[in-house]
Amino acid sequence: MNQVPQRKKFDWLTAGQFGFSLLASLLLIGSSVVGILVMSLGGSLAGLAVTENQLGSALLFSAGLGFAGFLMIPSIYFSGRRLFGKPPRTSKIWQRSGWLIFSVPILIYLGHISQANSSWGNFILPFIHILTNGAAIFWLLNRVKRKLPGESAQRFWGVFGSGLTFAPLISLVVEILILVLLGILWWMLLQNQPGQKQEFLNLINRLQQSSVTPAILESSISRLLESPGVVGVIFVYIAVIIPLVEELIKPIAVWFLLGRNLSPREGFLLGAVAGAGYALFENLTIAADAGIWTFVVISRLGTAAIHILTTALVGWGLASASTEKRYARLLMSVIASVSLHGVWNGLNILTALAEISSFQPTLGSFGTYFASYAPVGLVILALGALLGLFWANSRFQRAIMSQVNQDK
User: Is 396 within 8 Å of 148 (Cβ atoms)?
Assistant: First the structure.
């Protein structure tokens, strides 16, 4: 009796990866081309009058979008191969990417030179911008994955692409909705304080005037920060709500893969890949400031290490809870990630507030003194995150070698 061959089950996750990656790539590359064309013409097509710094920053941003779209192509290719029934391929590129660290300082130096020459630097810096951030992120991934077994190229690029595009989009939407809700609640509270409400309306009217100088702007911001609860709400939003939202959304690809029996090690590594994609998108867009490019790109290296480590920890916790029912580990990993991210954000906002001279009396002598050491804390956190990634890689290598020795 002839057996009827079983029809292979259609993989909807692969189909979703292919469709989303294709759409994201087209939108990002298309937006990049349009942005570069408009800004290269000095904004004449849009009736804009742009300064050299605005032109440079817009070109950096557009180039970053295009690079992100380009990085979605491997996800399209490998998921497309899977849809057409071709055998999966293993990704081992990270075994040969350790040299990237040597290119980063050279690229930063070249970017610094380009930044100082706006006449031609505006058109050279975008290439250096994407190469520097790309090299730094992929080197960090090499530190996480070096000497570990290769993985599915489709899975790697799919997870990386989700962190690069899908997670930032969802995070942005959720954060804006929460910010609007906080604004509505704050406005409702002002209804019971007519004096504060009128002062706020006067401040808005002043900021809308075309004659506002930087000094007036700083003074207005300082007066706004003195309003009841404003600084507290800022810290809660930036140091608590944003970290919580992002740490739950960044490993969104790991959430989708939980039904495929991920080991805790796989959860950690895939979380790191998702965090790397998220960090790269932020670096390509948030760091797109031609006027202070060198400072921003160096400072964002620490943020990248934080993003990769925190997302890896949540991925580790998710896989542990899914395959080993270790829910306490998931809870602790989320708390640790949100706390680390929150402290990082809190130190950044404290540093920014301390730079507003008119706000320093509000901080007080102790607050101003503490804020002066906040940059040191940021450096310590960044180095700690980097060492944490090294330690995790070393531990995974030892675990694999121990398992190999047991199987002999």
Answer: yes
